[in-house]
Amino acid sequence: MRPRQNGASVAPETLSNSSSSPQPSTPQSLHSNDPELLTIKLFYHFEHNIVETLPIGKADTWVQMVEIALDYRYLMQSMLSLSAAHLHYLHPEDGRYEEAKLQHQSAALTELREALSRDITPKNSDALFACSVLLFLYAWTAANPEDIGFPSGFEDLVPLATGIKNMVMQAVLTRTSVFQETMAFSPRVALSMCALGTTVPDELEVLFKQQYHLAFPEDEAEQHWKFDAFMTECKRLIPVVSILKLRQTGTDTTLLTHSIVRYLFTWPVLLSEGYFELMKTRDCLGLLILYHFFSAMAQADIPTMWWCRKRTSIVISGLTKCFADSRVPVVNMYGSVGNEQSTRRSKWLEQIDWGIQLMIDRRWEGTSTQGSSS
Q: What confidence score (pLDDT) does residue 273 get?
């Protein structure tokens, strides 16, 4: 296991597919068609490049999981599949990675199902949870319309998302879990607090209501069940969209990067029954929820979010054409902010001591004040 220095991190650019970005560190001797050497390369790539940028959990936590994976094949297979998926994203011309990601993902799913059929204990709960998170992240990388249930964009994610939610709600993670602190942190609270004192959240709620009435003008009184279903999901979008809008005006949101990524990554996990009712008939309101969510993914434009880029592009492109063909008006949530009060920095960020703020954010990022892990 490689030693780690305090504050050491992999630059986000290492996860970009830009030709000008430095490529992830990989021993030159591992560039081989030998299956065993390829497996070593994938494991090395996961430990040295992927762990630093995962949307859930501290980097140090995932280093522990790398060690634990030596005892749990399903966890090891999920790590190898995600590593291969990222290398395939960086090098789409190399067929080895595509074949490897499919092989290891299939093995991980099979072995995870078998493990879940047996007793879940404090000893194996972390491995089961970590494997589920990695498979959920892998599922995000699926980018073919037939795989993602276009135009829903989520159909392949829902089963895994439901499984993760059930594991957490059933308290599978014990008080001794290495993920306990991670699960106690709420990115929604962090995002909402930073928008406190601005008019942006209220302006967004008005815009989402306008979107509802443009798409469903029959319900002027806002009494139809569809209004509650639509606004429930839109209100869940408001915290992250607020921060993205404030960032447009010059507010420094660097310390919120991890919260933005985690919030967007886990957003589908909490989709409501109302959303699924809308999607049963491909109601345009359900599609609009999807559009505004994936627009937030695109607007975030964070280098470490490589896993969502292709899916986001496919969904936005498809839905844009769908709305144009059906003449459904779409409200732009990222236009200019309405007034001076909205453009100024959040009162909370102005008044709180930055030393305390840094300590708070570093705690949930899983780093010290000497360096960042994301």
A: 93
